[in-house]
Amino acid sequence: MHPLHALLLGLVLAATAALPGEVVAEDTTLILEYENDLFAGDDRWYTNGVRATWMRTSRPWRHHDLITLLSDLAPLIDSGRPVSYGLSLGQNMYTPKDITDPDPPDDDRPYAGWLNASAGLGQLRSASLTRLAVTVGVIGPASLAKRTQKEVHRRIGSNVPRGWSTQLRNEPTLMVSVERIERLWETSPVDGWGADLNGHLGIALGTPFTLAGTGLTMRLGRYMPNDFSPPRIQPAFPGSMRFVPAERWGWYVFTGVDGQGRARDVFLDGNTYRRSRSVSRKPWVGEIIVGLAVANQRARLAYTHAFRSREFKGQPEGAEYGSLSLSVHW
Questions:
Q1: Given phi > 0 = left and psi -120 to 50 = alpha, else beta, which region is 229?
Q2: How far apart are CA 61 and CA 292, in angstroms?
Q3: Is the peptide bond before 235 cis (omega within 30 degrees of 0)?
Q4: Count of structural domains within the chain
Q5: Domain with 143 in it: what CATH number?
Q6: Helical H runs in 129-273?
Q7: What's the pLDDT tens digit per position in 179-219?
């Protein structure tokens, strides 16, 4: 086994991505996410993302000393309330516009893959969510993105990607991220109908991404589960992995806007310590999302459609992709 793959596997087995939910009992949640630009009829740029997350919500008296330390250092975590611990394993893929070209133009997005694992914690206090996570991973051939995309395209009979020999080189990654979500406004439910507006702030510092972002999300529905919109894969705003269900089947539609200032994006800037392909990154990126979520007492299924502004100079238009997620808890 490649040593970087062994490191990721070790983290998956030993680590503990965080979720909201003010609960009084312990529970476990499994979240599966799939993002692809084929939902928008394209096959380019940010082309695919998958992630699996396991999380456990613990009673306050079972917290580790780490929680007490964090609550002493900053008011972000309250050691007297339940905390969710979790781990994630994911893979992202990036390609240029024409995957049939074995030597893509130098001014198009480079081929790149990212295999990553995250460990973190989160806590809901009143109408807010705080989340802290550490993400490690690897880019380059060791990410297995070339093998994954070629096998998937072979099975579905799609165009074979021919330019992976130009992808970014092997490089380990490390990132620390913090997010805060606040419920800014909500209606009093009438016959199960309700609406709310949530604002978020996030910062990520590391070798794959260094960025800061903020935005708003509006939800409208009936018997809505208690969450802050469905989960998304970074660098998008992550949303809520865990949810607290309503008393019966519920649903909501949502829309949101997000803006980010990016000081680093290795998938555009190229390798950190070695020569590789790269493009001129745009420092500001915006995104609009729309979607639908349905949930009962055990599961939430959601679809998000994202419209992202241009991320690098020379990109002819913004990107568009879909995100499908399933959360199951017991």
A1: left
A2: 36
A3: yes
A4: 1
A5: 2.40.128.140
A6: 145-156, 266-269
A7: 999 999 999 989 999 999 999 999 999 999 999 999 999 99
Distances in Å between the Cα of 258 and the Cα atoms of 58, 102, 238, 255, 308 are 31, 35, 11, 10, 9
Asked whether residue 102 carries a pLDDT value surpassing 50, the answer given is yes
CA distance 276 to 273: 9
Alpha-carbon span 285 to 277, nearest angstrom? 21
> Considering the entire predicted model, what is its pTM?
0.88
Separation between Cα atoms, residue 173 and residue 52, nearest integer Å? 19
Say how far apart CA 204 and CA 178 lie, in whole Å: 7
Smallest CA-to-CA distance from 83 within 56, 123, 54 is with 123
Is 138 exposed, middle or buried, given 0-12, 13-18 or 19+ CB atoms closer than 10 A?
A: buried
Burial environment of residue 330 by CB neighbours within 10 A (0 to 12, 13 to 18, 19 or more): exposed
* Lookup: tokens for 70: 């964090």
Residue 297: strand, helix, or coil: coil
Q: Please give the Cα distance from 205 to 192 (Å, whole number).
A: 41
Residue 76 domain boundaries: 3-329
| pLDDT in the model for residue 67 | 61
pLDDT band, very low/low/confident/very high, at 42 (cuts 50, 70, 90):
confident
Helix (H, G, I), strand (E, B) or coil at 61: helix
